Amino acid sequence: MVEVAPAVVIKRPRTPKDVVVEQRLLDLLDARTPLTVVRGPRGFGKTTLIGAWLAAQPTEQDAVYLRLTRASNDTATFWSGLAGGLAAAGAIDPDPAGDAREEVVRHLGARSWPLTVVIDDFHHAGRREDAADIDDELVELVRQNENLYLVVATRTSRVLETTGSLSIDVTVISPRELRLSAASVAALAARTGVAIGEAQAARLADGFGGWPAAIRDVLVRSRGDGGRVNLALADQYIATMVRDLRHEAVRSFMLRTAVPEEFDAELAGEVAPSEKVLAILRNVRSAGLLREEVRDERRVYSYAPLVRQALVRVLTESRPQQLHEVHAALTGWHIRNGDPVRAILHAVQAGAWDTVEQLMEEHWARLITQEPWSLVAAAQLIPPEVAAAHPRLQVVREEVGPALPANDDGALPVPPWPTSDLRGLTAELRARRAEASDGNSLALLQWGVAAVMAGDLGTALYAFGRCRERGHSRGDVPGAVRPATAGLALTHALLGDVEIARGWLEDPALRVLPDDESRQGTELTVTAAGIARALVALDALDEDLDDAVDAIPERHRRDEIWSLIVFLRASRAGLAGEAAEVARWAANLRAARHYLPRAGLAETVIRVELVDLLMDGGMVAAARQAALDLPVSVVSLPTHARMSLADGDYARAIGHARTGLAHPRLSQRSALVCHLVVASAQYALGERLAAHRAFEQAIEVAVGSGQRRPLLTMRYATFVQLAGTDTATAALWPERFRPRAQEDDVASAARPAEPLSRREHQVLDALGRHAGAVGVAQELGLSVNTIKTHLRAVYRKLGVGSREEALVAAAARGGTAPGPQWAKG
């Protein structure tokens, strides 16, 4: 029954001293709209707010406070209790023999002076259809009598809140308004005698979702702990709230859905299966216990952080079997949605070790390169004795963790290129001899290969190195030492470390490879070593580079390894510079893209090589077209710099080159190209001192790494001028790659030439400061056509065909104009 004793009906709720009621909420009640609904879950301060508001009213005769109990679930009991409560408060004088509902409606409908009826715990009023009937009756009463004001406090959304607003004015004070702000939390802490700062107040407000009673409970309990806020005390409040929930279905729903960080309606049905799951979700959301966000046209829900933490702890301690069921359901959910990282994390929590190993094997390349921190975090949760029985788990725990940089602002970013499906390469690695079958070594080799595919060559060196050490300790030369050594040689060759890669190729493990008859299971190792040898020969411009490229074994699988072979043969064609060969290999490069994963590192390398090949072959217009949609990355920056240099856009060329030089993953080969571009651009701009400094840096890279091929990207005439009389530097350019035409140009530049007129001297001097005739004309105050006439004469006398060649030839003559202005250049 409704409590009709005077202590409940007449005595209004007491407001605790150490609470904070925001004035804006009191103002909403003071507005006295016909219907005011105060809705929120237990502990959201509904009764406290109403008590504070009633205490501030000037009189007590025009407001009646009633509080319902569960007995009011029965409709007849509700109406009789309401009639009795109103009568005890002196608001109506019902006929004891009459129908309670009719008496309440008759008296309240006929009331001629203002009356506010406050009904607390209104969620107890009726059940199902009866509850809707009660709401409709009360709304109709308020609609008919302008002297009647109704205030209800409820934990759930009711019909009088939703459809009632269609016929009368309704003010809803929802959980959003009832939540405590950070400022209110700080004020509440001050009242309870707990000293906290602004940051901690904000953390409490956000962590509890502004839940007033939960925050107050923690603060009050913390007073006995020396005034230090103990967030663990929140669990006690949440646990009590969960135990007091009326329906087991709601209790189970909240505990189970707290396990995932966020969920939608579909996932809620997976982890908390029930016929009424959608209704429960709606009620829990309307009660303010869930945060809601619309993302990609679907609604996503989550609990406040500290609330979720407490719910998960309650589930862990009281229902461990259900916790495992939820993690198992989440594992299957994330597997179906293509998220192996979260699937592994939940499989670990569910103790499904075989599932963890299977997921790691299927998605090893992606996990080990793109999600290493998550992988290590999951592996650390696995008992050591379990990890020891699963090779990949063991590798993650013992090898991957120590190799990772700190995951902070100073760490290298996650590699930008996704790895493709490595099943084909894995099958080749597995095809080794039986005595070499070691799961840990295989996982390390796969890690190294995946890191190469992702462009993380530093990590690849670590993985291959650890595999080689393990192979030596086990005496496993064919199964671990040999492929790991080939991986080290290839990785260093890709980094542009020519001499280091050459050293690994001379290692005893690779010095004698199996012959054709005994090569089964080692094709990948032989191919990797062959690619490394060819790349070293090309970069060093060795005499036998043609033999090294031709010796690479043919590969029938059109994968990333095969694309490196295409890259090498195209690079060799670029060295020769023959138009037919350049065109043929340009076509091969375009075709190779179709066999490779889009936006992967291998495809990017092929696209970059296409632009480089066309530039090396003198097909600048075609190269410019190929570079139009080439994304800017650490791999393509040197090529973009070369393209800008060829277009005469020296500022942009320097910008691209310097951006590349600042990247932590730039290879030595690319670094040398960038330094040479900077030197060439600054020399063309007449910045001779800066050009010499950049050139010196390029030579340091060339000498230190053994790189020679990138030198050919610089004009030979510019190289000769910057090298000057340094014979050691001049010797870095191999004799057989010295262009005959450029030799003649330099020689002719050194011979006496037809002298320039004084005006031509001035034009040539100004040309060093401007990119073309327009700038020169503006400086000298002449017309553009006049300047072009003088430039043609200058080019003819110097025997050159471009601005850059004219400046190089002028420098070779030791200056072309008298006076201090030319001397400055």
What is the first-to-last residue Cα distance? 103 Å
Largest sheet: 5 strands, parallel
User: Any low-confidence stretches, pLDDT <50, length ≥5?
Assistant: 1-10, 516-521, 741-753, 816-825
In which order are the strands of the major sheet placed? 2-3-4-1-5
Task: State which percent range the strand residues make up.
Answer: under 5%
Q: How does CATH name the architecture of the largest domain?
A: Alpha Horseshoe
Compute the number of structural domains. 6
Helicity range of the residues? Answer: 55-70%
Structural class label = mainly alpha
Secondary-structure map with pairings?
Elements: H1 6-9, H2 23-30, E1 35-39, H3 46-55, E2 63-67, H4 75-88, H5 100-109, E3 115-120, H6 129-144, E4 148-154, H7 159-162, E5 170-173, H8 175-178, H9 182-192, H10 198-207, H11 212-223, H12 234-243, H13 248-257, H14 265-271, H15 277-286, E6 291-295, E7 298-302, H16 305-318, H17 320-336, H18 340-350, H19 353-362, H20 364-370, H21 372-380, H22 384-387, H23 391-403, H24 423-430, H25 439-453, H26 457-474, H27 477-495, H28 498-505, H29 508-511, H30 523-540, H31 545-550, H32 560-576, H33 579-592, H34 601-616, H35 620-626, H36 637-646, H37 650-661, H38 668-684, H39 688-705, H40 716-723, H41 727-730, H42 740-750, H43 758-767, H44 773-780, H45 784-798, H46 803-812, H47 820-824
Parallel strand pairs: 1-4, 1-5, 2-3, 3-4
Antiparallel strand pairs: 6-7
